[in-house]
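Students often ask what a holo structure prediction actually looks like on paper. The answer is less mysterious than it sounds. You provide the chain, you provide the ligand, and the output is a string of discrete structure tokens encoding the 3D arrangement of the protein together with zinc ion.
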Amino acid sequence: MAFPIHRPRRLRRNENIRRLVRETNLSVDDFIYPLFIEDGENIKIEIPSMPGIHRYSLDRIDEELDEVVELGIPAVLLFGIPSHKDAVGSDTWSEEGIIQKAIRHIKKNYPQLYVITDVCFCEYTEHGHCGVLHEHDVNNDLTLENTKKQVVSHAKAGADMVAPSGMMDGVVKAIREALDEAGFSNIPIMSYSAKYASAYYGPFRDAAESAPAFGDRRTYQMDPANRREALREVALDIEEGADIVMVKPALAYLDIISDIRKNFNLPVAAYNVSGEYSMIKAAGKLGWIDEKKVMMETLTSIKRAGADIIITYHAKEAAKILKENC
Ligand code: PBG
Ligand code: ZN
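The corresponding structure tokens follow.
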């Protein structure tokens, strides 16, 4: 006979008691902020479908970095838009590639910031696919060879961590071996382990000019209908040497985050992707939702599901709110 002895509302009567029993607290410590860096000069272009998010050239990126550091966001995730694309994405392993230049700039001027690089090819290939093409599909093992060159080049430029996002089989093992051989055994790998073939990436592809010129990514990214397969992908990545595993997107995949949290002991990251960001921004602009509240609720839900780390375009805004509330 639970009621009237048990009254859960007793623990909700005011903010003090709610604070004491709160199970999930968001913190700026949870956030990684993605940056789009474009080769060229004097560039600061707002991405139309992602209000508040810009592409910067390196000569203008400091205004963004100053803010990130000032807000106490621990890490950035770099995406590059190169001046030149080719069939294989050779800018990704060039010493003068856009990401290599960006890493050197940031580590020199903001040494306290942790720099993570997205490791893929789609922004750097003319065809927009995430690797080397062979017979109209991405060839897995040829792509691994180029990935090794890419990560060693990022490490040499000073990257703190690499994050492979191409969903090639065996990529974590290939990266671990390449980094160790080159003397970078201390650089961790955050693997996009369970990355789904999602329509939520749409705004990102505008931002990074990385939409595939033909077809889609369903031969390498996961089928959104699959749940058990995510555990298999994560188990393989851990065996191969991943230090952090990621689920992407986040919001439509909270069950996957929760499953991975329950089954493994590594830190779990979730990528709150571009489309998730854009939907909140659009509905906020229309006045249909309270944008800031929905943002905080969404980020909290991702953490509650089991994410230790949230990669999010909301990082600066959320950090500001968390700061005001302390
Ligand atoms: C590239 C990459 C994508 C995202 C991160 N890395 C897009 C894709 O797979 O097409 C998506 C990020 C976002 O939507 O915010 N491999
Ligand atoms: Zn890609």
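The mean pLDDT is 97.
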